[in-house]
Amino acid sequence: MESAWVAVVVRAQVGDREAVAELVRGWHEPVWGYVRHMLGRADLADDVSQEVWLAVVRGLPRLKEPERFAAWLFTIARRSVVNQLRQRYAEQPHVDVDEEPDPADHVIERIDVRRLLGGVPVMEREVLVLFHLEDLSLEECAEVLGVPVGTVKSRLYRARRLLREEAGS
Amino acid sequence: MISAEETIAGLHDSLSLRRRVRSVVQLCGAGAVVALVGVLWLTEDRLPARAQVGFAALLLVGLGVMARAVYVLRQHGHLFARDRVIAGWIASGFAVLLAIGLALAGHGRLGLLFVPAALAYLLFTHLAKRRLERR
């Protein structure tokens, strides 16, 4: 995360209400986009993203490492999404893959990803949104998802394969 | 899509300093009353039954106000560093008032326990805020 954002997070933690507004202005769209892609409905994304920001305001004073704000924010967003998806969210087995994400694979245009995401299962969709659309690092994705980096890689690998299949169909 | 400004407007209540401070004032004020009445009740001999009923009612109301204030504060989440400093000043003010009340009731020494505790909390909040501002 950029150091400019760290300063804004710290100002918000001190109690500068304008800094909180600045955070919302800067991060509202990524959060809304993530929630929208995960839930598939704009009206739900409105409610859930509002819920996310309330949780952020409540928890912000206790955030120990401001530089990890992005991962913390998306962890909160994910928790809200999982609450929404709990009914239809089924655990799926993962395949451990040791290889690094293939550079050739990530030549996936954002526009294509957005268009095809709806056909990808929730777990794979989530990692695609975080990594490709929200530009979170592998480590940040792992933190948000609460899994090891290796698992993020394996999910990305599978997600790209599914995306390719989706594009080919 | 809900806009960022609409989202910020939706956070207004949670961010309201006035609402947070009001809850802190209620908590500290009710706490001081509960402490004062409690000490008097425990230490005064031969209190008439009517006075005891009055004390019990005051304690119940005080505890109710404290519980409500705690609930509201929890709903709004943790206090920001600057808000905690304000809470420290409020707590210190009520600790001084409590100490004066206890001194007037003949329990001056007991009152002296509250003031240093509140001042220590105030100092802690100042240091925490300064540490954060230096980052």
Automatic annotation (TrEMBL), chain A:
Similarity comment: family membership: Belongs to the sigma-70 factor family. ECF subfamily.
Keyword Thylakoid assigned: no
Keywords recorded for this protein, A-Z: DNA-binding, Sigma factor, Transcription, Transcription regulation
Gene3D superfamilies linked: 1.10.1740.10, Winged helix-like DNA-binding domain superfamily/Winged helix DNA-binding domain
Keyword Transcription regulation on entry: yes
The RNA polymerase sigma-70 region domain, residue ranges: 23-88
Xref: InterPro entries: RNA_pol_sigma-70-like, RNA_pol_sigma-70_dom, RNA_pol_sigma70_r2, RNA_pol_sigma70_r4_t2, RNA_pol_sigma_r2, RNA_pol_sigma_r3/r4-like, WH-like_DNA-bd_sf
Protein's organism: Kribbella sindirgiensis
Protein name per the record: Sigma-70 family RNA polymerase sigma factor
Any Pfam family matching the protein: Sigma70_r4_2
SUPFAM superfamilies noted in UniProt: Sigma2 domain of RNA polymerase sigma factors (SSF88946), Sigma3 and sigma4 domains of RNA polymerase sigma factors (SSF88659)
GO terms of molecular function: DNA binding; sigma factor activity
Domain spans labelled RNA polymerase sigma factor 70 region 4 type: 112-163
A biological process from GO: DNA-templated transcription initiation
Automatic annotation (TrEMBL), chain B:
TM ranges: 24-43, 55-73, 85-104, 110-128
Domain of life: Bacteria
Keywords noted in UniProt: Membrane, Transmembrane, Transmembrane helix
Protein name: Uncharacterized protein
Organism: Kribbella sindirgiensis
